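#data-curation
PF: Archiving a pair of folding outputs for the training set. Convention for this channel: one message per protein, sequence first, structure tokens after, nothing in between. First:
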Amino acid sequence: MFDIGFLELLLIGVLSLLIMGPERLPGAVRSVTLFVSRMRRSFNQIKSEIEREVGADDIKQQIHNETIMESLAKTKSDLQESFQETADELKPDLDKLQYDIEDIISADEKEPTDDKPQS
């Protein structure tokens, strides 16, 4: 974590022994060890809580996305049904219009055209 090597630890140990003396050094080491373990435990708890929150957010986002996709699929099917109903309603009118156009065309072909110039 801090990237401390053996030589650095040895130097810290020797300096601690010289400054505190042999009587107080074991108590100081115990205190430092407890402090480091508490910090490590707190860090791990915070890390796991953040991971849980991030996981919960991902799940909420996925559920939200699925809800939107279901809504879009329902809207799509409703539109398809509406278009089909409209097409079914317009089909007879289109067929009648086609026959009317064919009647007009055939009537135009039967009528003679006047090519005489008007005076």
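PF: Second:
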Amino acid sequence: MKALIIEEYQSNLSAMLKGMKITEIETPKPAGKQVLVKIDGSPCNPSDIAFMRGMYNIRKTLPKAAGFEGTGIVIEAGDDREAQQLLGKRVCTFSHQDENGTWAEFFLTEPTHCIVLKNEMPVEQAACFYVNPFTAYGLFEITLKRGDKGIVQNAAAGVVGAFVGKLAEKEGIPLLNIVRRPAHVELLKSQGEKYVLNSRDKEFESQFREMAHALNATMAFDAVGGDHSGLLLNNMPSKSGLVLYGGLSGQNASSFDVLDTIFKGKSFSGFNLGDWKRENKGKRLSEVSEFLQDLIIRKEVETKIQKVIKLEEAFEGLYQYITNMSDGKVIFNPQA
């Protein structure tokens, strides 16, 4: 089978892109609890870029096919009953541990790493379903449990931002969106978002403080990290919490006001989707999956796709994604 292989970690982006290559490797054979998925859609996420640069919390023995997430049809299964029940079904899946990823024609995995999809789910949306929609749901669940009356989110023009926006709308919770480009301010406002700020504006900090307090926004979802984390939490009301779920800045979260933590009850924590899914497996995960799939099928919210490419077009496609992440996902179709 064809697979997009990385042979070594490269912190330099250009070297990383040039170091990938298409290789013919042996198609795996499922046994026991394993299933073989014929991949027809696999996106590039920021976590994939971080992984290939050696800057992610998952490191694999190289060479390996890259790609954490994907969708396809289960075409073979081991003799385990649960595996056999997935034969012929469309699933989305995720690469775990020290194994080849989803940027390949076929992917070997297990039922516990598969989510069965409805027939109405478009392939491109199915390819991106395993990570971002559930991340948004898990984050939003924290707000519901805490009883926050308002939310702040950065990277608001991204996929998680779109899903959080839809969930906040359904619950009637005001949402303060933070982006970095004037075009994204206009985009979100054209989509009906009422509160949008550009973090690069000179008056951003004072504008943010005023609006966060006016909305009583006591929860922040932070995909950026660095000094930006402290800036957000320091300017939010007492009893506020900040949840880190990404590190787009490449810097450690910092600049938190110690006295605010001690005397104003402010806190920060992290969110890991893998932990959330382990805590919400079985029937609960199926219920959340159905809810999110229905949102997508009804086109109430969706992952923005900028391009579908062949594995052979990886260099150009990934360069386009890295330089224009907010324009949407780039999807590999290994069968093309």
